[in-house]
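Quick review question:
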């Protein structure tokens, strides 16, 4: 299965985290591992099975990728750089995502 590359901001945040952990734990740090749907590539299944098939709009896959990337950055950065306007934009897309998915399941699911 082809996996999408991890966004640059996520790598930067992971590298910062790694550097801080190395400063704190030194040689006691045995390794760092990335788990979850992005590492497994699961979250791209929406695009593969529903968007490419024309069942759901392309923008939904983009919204999911954007939200996931922002979540990863916020999870791994020490200080969140999302402002209120950013969060409101993500929230509006999430609400549209959910309503579109519900409509799809009611009519085609």
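Suggested answer, residue by residue:
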């Amino acid at each position: 299965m082809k996996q999408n590359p991890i966004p640059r901001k996520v790598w930067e945040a992971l590298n910062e985290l790694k550097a801080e952990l190395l400063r704190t734990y030194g040689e006691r740090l045995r390794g760092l591992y990335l788990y979850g749907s992005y590492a497994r590539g699961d979250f791209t299944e929406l695009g593969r099975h529903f968007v490419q098939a024309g069942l759901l709009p392309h923008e939904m896959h983009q919204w999911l990728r954007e939200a996931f990337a922002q979540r990863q950055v916020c999870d791994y950065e020490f200080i969140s750089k999302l402002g209120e306007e950013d969060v409101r934009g993500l929230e509006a897309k999430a609400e549209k995502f959910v309503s579109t998915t519900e409509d799809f399941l009611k009519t085609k699911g």
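Why it works: The chain has a mean pLDDT of 79. The radius of gyration is 17 Å.
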